[in-house]
Amino acid sequence: MSRRVVQRLPIAVPAAVCRATRTLWPTSLPSSPPQTPTTPAALAVPSRTVRVPLPARAASSASSTRWKTRQGNDSYAREAKLAGLKSRAAFKLLEINDKYRLFKKGDTVVDLGFAPGSWSQVAANRTSPGGRVVGIDVIPAQPPKGVSTLQGDFLSPEIRAELRKYVSEAARGRPRVHHQLLSQDAEDAQEESGATQDDLDAENKGILELEKAAGGGGRAQKLNAQRQLDEAEGRVVDVVLSDMSEPWPLVTSTWIKSVSNPWRRMMNTSGMAFRDHAGSMDLCLAALDFSYDTMATGGHFLCKFYQGAEDHALEMRLKKLFERVHRIKPDSSRKESKEAYLVGLRRKAGVEKETVLGGD
């Protein structure tokens, strides 16, 4: 059987067919896309510094520049800072107190318009130990050590009623340690002597009898009776201080730091003498009205005012309620300022309110 041999001959493929074949079945497929790393370092977005232009600082006004210059050259302002006082106004009260002796240890003091607190600092120092100082202001302010404060508008009847209620409670705002020491000392003295309360009352009665025999009993009894009457009617304040000033009307509804802050502080002058004077008279009369309701017989009154046509009438009102009235402008008060102070010493007993605050 013969074997069949098949010979494969080369076949020439046309070029057009080759191009079509390469198009349909490419000889080199593209490689798979590279895998993205998932490590934290690879995923982190590169940082880039972005420079944002800051708003330019507004130039200081002429009045602000003058104020800074004046403060820098003011010896009282420098002394207040060195002494740790809230403001230079403390020296005004120190000067007035050195002259008229407003404070004594254990007094109850009300500071109207206390912020930033320099007058309250002085009052707390001069009435310690055992005294209490209560301040009120329309703005929130950190009270000095040993001072209690209320935030509110003093011209509001509700706020004044709340303040009267606060000071009528003798223990509120007074150091607790002082009360505890006094109570403990009284108990110890009573135990050591073996005396009862009846014995002490009898002893006090005997002292009054001796004073009466010596000619001084009538005065002692009157003072004791007046003190009890004052306490029963809520008149327990020994000193009322007022450093308030009336702000001009806030006419804008938007918050502007240079306008709104001074308005809320109630401590600015408008630059108009008549307006400042009239506003200060209203505040002084409000302080006097509060003093009539809360001040004990023998108490003292101090208020700041801006000089004008009506301050003489205010002085006359004070003379009806206090034994002595003085007008003073402390050396620490700036010479160009229109401010002055009225001091009423030793409140009289039995004066009708209509006589003091009624129509002239």
Automatic annotation (TrEMBL):
**What protein family does this chain belong to?**
Belongs to the class I-like SAM-binding methyltransferase superfamily. RNA methyltransferase RlmE family.
Keywords from the named record: Methyltransferase, rRNA processing, S-adenosyl-L-methionine, Transferase
Report the InterPro entries cross-referenced here: RNA_methyltr_RlmE, RNA_MeTrfase_FtsJ_dom, rRNA-MeTfrase_E, SAM-dependent_MTases_sf
Q: Where is this region: Disordered?
A: 174-201
What is the designated name of this protein? rRNA methyltransferase 2, mitochondrial
Q: Does the keyword Oxidoreductase apply?
A: no
**What is one GO cellular-component annotation here?**
mitochondrion
Q: What region holds the Ribosomal RNA methyltransferase FtsJ domain?
A: 86-347
GO molecular function terms noted in the UniProt entry:
rRNA (uridine-2'-O-)-methyltransferase activity
Pfam families referenced in this protein's UniProt entry, alphabetically: FtsJ
